[in-house]
Amino acid sequence: MKVDGLNWLILEILQKNARVTTSEIAKKVGLSSPSVAERIQKMEDAGIINGYKAQLNMENLGYTLGVYISIKIRFGQVENFTEYVQAVPEICECHKLTGNDCMLMKGYVKDPKHLEDLNKRLANYGELTTSLLLSSIVKERTYSAPFQPASL
């Protein structure tokens, strides 16, 4: 599917607020509501839009520490770990990596004791490196068309 300039404008608006109505989008991009709805449906069907979700403030939910944990998984444990980590409620992301570590996880815990418990459970599968998230410089990017590398 070709993503033209109008589709990109629609995508930008939806990235900023997925609950915006098609009539609001239509006003901003200069199309009718049915045209906007049709474009959104086509982008959903093409897999460009994968879904809509609520963004949670984990700190306000009591999970005050954001963590990144990389793991060098012991030989023969990758499959077991891959299955296990999907059921770990503190982990919200897990990515396979190249390089020294096998995977990088992002998660949230309530306090240092909770982190210690999480690390203990994950360490059954390999060697961990844990980093606390201090602050986010780029928290969530809104993509625009066409995206180019930032100028130096």
- CATH class call of the largest domain: Alpha Beta
CATH topology of the largest domain: Alpha-Beta Plaits
- Share of helical residues: 25-40%
In CATH, the architecture of the largest domain is: 2-Layer Sandwich
Number of E-state strands:
4
Helix/strand/pairing class, anyone? alpha+beta
SSE series: HHHEHEEHE
Q: Give the overall pLDDT as a whole number.
A: 94
Descriptive labels:
152 residues; alpha+beta; Arc Repressor Mutant, subunit A; Alpha-Beta Plaits; 2 domains; elongated
Structural commentary:
With 152 residues, this protein is of the alpha+beta class. It folds into two domains: 5-45, Arc Repressor Mutant, subunit A (Orthogonal Bundle); 65-133, Lrp/AsnC effector binding domain/regulation of amino acid metabolism (RAM) domain (Alpha-Beta Plaits, 2-Layer Sandwich), CATH 3.30.70.920. It is 34% helix and 20% strand. The protein has five helices and four strands, in the order αααβαββαβ. The protein has helices at 5-16, 22-29, 33-45, 78-85, 112-122, and strands spanning 65-73, 91-96, 103-109, 126-133. Strands 2-3-1-4 form a four-stranded antiparallel sheet. A hairpin with a 6-residue loop joins strand 2 and strand 3. Helix 2 crosses helix 3. It is elongated and about 55 Å long. The model has no long low-confidence stretch (mean pLDDT 94).
Give the structure's gist in a few sentences:
With 152 residues, the chain is of the alpha+beta class.
Question: What is the strand and helix layout of this fold?
Answer:
Layout: H1 5-16, H2 22-29, H3 33-45, E1 65-73, H4 78-85, E2 91-96, E3 103-109, H5 112-122, E4 126-133
Antiparallel strand pairs: 1-3, 1-4, 2-3
Helix pairs in contact: 2-3
